[in-house]
Design goal:
With 616 residues, this protein is an alpha+beta fold. The protein contains 15 helices and 28 strands. It binds adenosine monophosphate.
Length: 616
């Protein structure tokens, strides 16, 4: 690299794409963003770590990838799929990996045992980051200590924090976590000639993301994002591997680590060949002197992967709906990730967007180049660009009756914060428990609990009187902090939400799908819960008002009767909502009349004004 090629500011911040399959670094020079290559010109570093049998230092990259067959259980690939996950979360794929994955005893987190030592996915990712860093330092001729690292947009809090930990372990300060499709859009739009609405479709080795962005005058605003952290080229390899095993009648060999590595390698080679040819043939060494030959046509391959590609198209449509954009409003389509070289993927995405892919962006390099641009912005080198990203899943608080009151909705621009006031449910309550949830459904049972904490020391007051202001803050990395303060006394508590491990992808997918399927049902559920809450508050309030008031006996009797009826209906779990509503309306009419006549407007107000949702 020449002097003119050196990075723009004095401070060096590199952009790193830490991929499932390959990783690489880039930096912004006076000539624009550049990939940092190895001495032989290679840009991509395979995200693979091999542990030699003699216990010597693990090797990383192409050298490790080349050892896969002679060290089948000691060559670790696709470790990004295990980041921030428990062993139970990765059950399905662990059985297909040639290396073992075990649960760590305390929280069941995924660990990879080698020679009696359990490696965490963070430590293994740190090895990959260390190799990327060494390559960057050799290319730049100086030390690299700070980086912007990309993650799939659909990574949850735990996966983002795990990525940060991996950077720390590799001796890198991670200045910002950037979503991969957002980074790719920066690489695409840097020259300022692409204002408009852009769809970035990013299908890599292990993850899928799609984002809809609006680019205008140097502002890159993400409108919506959707994805699947468990879908990518590895899954295409898996369906080919199954085909190979069936063709060879060799399903009994599937437990053999050597065979697993051999088939995985052959499956990927066949897949890549089919991106350019209509058919391909490969001899596969099954060990024990057995060989199998597989012929696969592109048509059969497409039939096998069609359901997987359809899943990505469903996400794409979801993102467009969330962004409130129609196909006609899309100005450009940007494809990122090695798996977008598969012709069926290109065809179906082009059909779904009505656009041919933009071909000015190298799908392998775009994410790292975009990360370098964001790194340059943070290092003070470029002040003309602004990146506005979003949070992928809604965040909320449990309120009475197991309902989630959402404070921050998915696709909200980050950083963001929102405050809402809640109150107590019981007279004299001196503590409130705050339960924090992530997900799209209305009921806590259908969302993922992130954390809970208690706000203590509230002086005893009648129910509904304390005013607890709860603030959710999401920073630019997508990490959540929660703060609660009782407004009358100033008593406060706060936590940074660190989930023990992330959502399983099935849960995310199920949550997204179910939130659409169940939207009507959820709304009815929510109304029913709110009606019950309102009814309980009215019973409580009316009884107290009756104690304080001096009503004529006939009116007292009528109100008591109406109150008791509501109370009785509430006690029966299967009371139809319309029957309860009629009783509540009747009670409401009677108390309003009394309030007007006798108790006075203050009590009337107390009885009829909607109460704030109550924290449990
Ligand atoms: P990435 O994570 O973006 O590096 O993408 C890696 C994935 O892209 C792996 O599953 C590769 O097998 C796949 N891939 C790379 N090149 C091709 C190709 N020419 N055709 C099909 N898939 C490819």
């Amino acid at each position: 690299m020449t002097a003119a090629d050196s990075p723009t500011p004095n401070r060096i911040v590199v952009g790193i794409d830490l991929g499932t399959t390959n990783s690489l670094a880039a930096v912004v020079t006076r000539h624009g963003p550049r990939v940092l290559r190895a001495a032989d010109g290679e840009a991509l570093l395979p995200s693979v770590i091999a542990f030699p049998e003699d216990g010597s230092t693990p090797v990383v990259g192409a050298e490790a990838k080349a050892r896969a067959l002679d060290l089948p259980t000691r060559t670790i690939h696709s470790v990004k799929r295990l980041l921030g996950r428990s062993r139970a979360d990765v059950e399905a794929e662990a059985s297909r990996l040639p290396y073992p994955v075990v649960p760590e005893p305390e929280r069941g987190l995924a660990r990879i045992p080698i020679d009696g030592r359990d490696w965490s996915p963070e430590e293994l990712s740190a090895r990959v980051l260390g190799a990327v860093r060494a390559r960057a330092e050799a290319a730049l001729g100086m030390a690299v200590e700070e980086a912007v690292i990309t993650v799939p947009a659909y990574f949850d809090d735990a996966q983002r924090q795990a990525t940060r930990h991996a950077a720390e372990l590799a001796g890198l300060r991670c200045l910002r976590i950037v979503n991969e499709p957002t980074a790719a859009s920066l690489a695409y739009g840097i020259d300022g000639s692409h204002d408009g609405t852009v769809v970035v479709y990013d299908l890599g080795g292990g993850t899928f993301d799609v984002s809809v962005l609006e680019i205008r005058d140097g502002v890159f605003k993400v409108l919506a994002t959707a994805g699947d952290t468990h879908l990518g080229g590895d899954d295409f390899d898996r369906v080919i591997a199954d085909e190979i095993l069936t063709a060879a009648g060799a399903h009994d060999l599937v437990d053999d680590a050597y065979v697993k590595q051999a088939i995985r390698k052959s499956a990927e080679a066949l897949k890549i060949e089919l991106s350019n040819a209509e058919g391909a043939e490969l001899a596969i060494d099954l060990g024990r002197e057995e060989q199998a030959t597989l012929r696969l046509t592109r048509a059969r391959f497409e039939e096998l992967i069609a359901p997987l590609v359809e899943r990505t198209i469903a996400c794409l449509r979801q993102a467009l709906r969330d962004a409130e954009r129609t196909i006609d409003q899309i100005d450009d389509l940007v494809l990122v990730g090695g798996s977008t070289r598969v012709p069926l993927v290109r065809r179906l995405v082009a059909e779904a967007t009505g656009r041919e892919p933009h071909d000015g962006v190298d799908p392998d390099l775009a994410v790292a180049l975009g990360a370098a641009i964001q790194a340059d912005i943070l290092a003070g080198g470029n002040r003309n660009l602004l990146l506005l990203d979003v949070i992928p899943l809604s965040l909320g608080l449990e309120t009475m009756g197991g309902v989630v009151s959402k404070l921050i909705l998915r696709n909200a621009t980050i950083p963001t914060s929102k405050t809402e006031e809640f109150s107590t449910q019981i007279d004299g309550q001196t503590a409130v428990e705050l339960n924090i949830y992530q997900g799209e459904r209305e009921r806590t049972a259908d969302c993922r609990k992130l954390a809970s904490f208690r706000l203590r020391g509230i002086p005893p007051m009648p129910a509904g009187l304390p005013r607890v202001a709860v603030t959710f803050m999401v920073d630019a990395d997508g990490v959540l902090r929660v703060h609660a303060k009782e407004q009358r006394t100033g008593i406060a508590a706060s936590i940074q939400v660190v989930p023990s491990f992330g959502l399983t992808q099935d849960e995310v997918r199920e949550m997204m799908r179910a939130s659409i399927d169940h939207a009507m049902e959820d709304m009815a559920d929510r109304e029913a819960i709110e009606l019950r809450n309102k009814a309980a508050a009215m019973v409580h309030g009316t009884r107290r008002a009756l104690e304080l008031s001096d009503l004529p006996p006939d009116q007292t009797y009528a109100v008591k009767k109406a109150t008791n009826k509501v109370d009785r209906l509430l006690a029966e779990a299967d009371t139809p909502a319309d029957e309860l509503k009629r009783a509540v309306d009747d009670l409401s009419r009677r108390t309003a009349q009394i309030a007007d006549d006798v108790i006075g407007s203050a009590v009337h107000k107390a009885l009829t004004e909607p109460r704030e949702p109550e924290a449990r």
